[in-house]
Amino acid sequence: MLESLLLGVFSVALLGCVLTDTSILFALTFGLALFSGYALAKGHTMRDVFAMWWSGIHTILPILVTFVLIGCITAFWRASGTIPAIVAYGAALVSPSVMVLATFLLCALMSVLTGTAFGTGATMGVICMTMAHGVGASELFVGGAIVAGSYYGDRMSPMSTSALLVATLTGTDIYQNLKAMLRTAIVPTILACVIYLALGYIGAASAVLQPPSPRGEGHEVAGGVAQTILATSTTDLAGNAITTLFTQSFDLSFVTLLPALLIVVLSLFRWHVQRMMAASIVAAVIIAVAVQGVAPLDLPRIAVFGYAPADPALAAAIGGGGILSMGRVTAIVGLSSCYAGLFEATGFLHAFTERIAQLATRITPFGSIFVAGLGTGLVACNQTLSILLTHDLCKDVVRDKAQLAIGIENTAVILSPVIPWSIAAAVPLTATGAPTACLAFAVYLYLLPVWNWAVAMRKR
Question: Please, are residues 35 and 6 in contact by the beta-carbon 8 Å criterion?
Fold first, then answer.
């Protein structure tokens, strides 16, 4: 079948980019040309192809506006001391025996508040990994907890690009989706916490029996950003060094938490996401100027290019954000949305949709979404394209929009991070220096789809 052959070629291109550490945008551009050529071969004109591209992009235009706001909010939350305050207050609660559980909960909290898994991995994830090395906790257990916690908010945050994309594609209300996602995550979350608590005690016992070798004697600390932080720290315990760095560089009074609290409170009042984010940005800007002493003339630069403190250690720990930081994900979502328009107009996925429909009668509609989400995740190598493909494959099989939205959130959104060659897994692993094997301990990401599939089977 021609469609299967083209998907195979596209998958090879994606995997090649991942293995060679080349930007996945090259493979997505290649795929766009490949599938556009398929449309031309089917008798469509180039003008028709452009119209297909636009139909896909038009669907996600509101999300592109939200990306700009996310870039601003992630920058000003850094400059205002909001993220440093969350990290410092959270780090004060951690002890070795609960290190793994605390890592999961802290990363989950950060990802829910910020809506970004990559940002969580590069901030709270790095902090937790360096603290884990300081107390001798297992990097396998902690790394798994970081990945699981970082993607907790991808389906539970009103600012999550994944949640916004699913709501837009399915035509559902994001706040109704969040309620359903919370309900379907209760049992998996509790089970994950129990497992992480047990792993923490196992890791603590192992550390007592075999203490980690001192730094500089063959023991490799966390890589990426974490390695830079540890290299520039002056205290023996990495977690204390980072907390000290933040307390010396920022005024971490309670007022710095206001931008994050606004997100929580305004979401309870069901504010429109963009208005809610704008309110948080305004609060963060005021705090950055009035409390942290940021010069007003620096605000446009921070909004566009992100927060960039002069101190190398501080820059490694908390620098980033800004509108330009969203450029890559904007390009990925934009290119991927063109695929949706092409596939819709050419019927490219028709044969695959029929197979999904057959599966739905055997293993429940949720089971069919699970299979589609896993399959597209293995092929697409990135979360956004997996979501779009899963929606295209299942939208005619699962007619209930709310059911389809929750199904995608509980499968495609959280399965991509456990696929080793996916960008969704590679980014947090690279940032924290965690080994690939730690994906086996991202237990929440496995429990969630399995539990909901079991519930669907039981209901049937």
Answer: yes
Q: Whole-prediction pTM value?
A: 0.70
The domain spans of the chain are 2-52+336-459, 62-326
Instruction: Summarize pLDDT for 182-234 with one digit per residue, the tens.
Output: 999 999 999 999 999 999 888 665 554 444 444 333 333 334 444 443 343 33
The span from the CA of 313 to the CA of 120, in Å, is 18
Q: Which two tokens stand for residue 290?
A: 């009035």
State how far the Cα of 117 lies from the Cα of 427, in Å rounded to an integer: 9
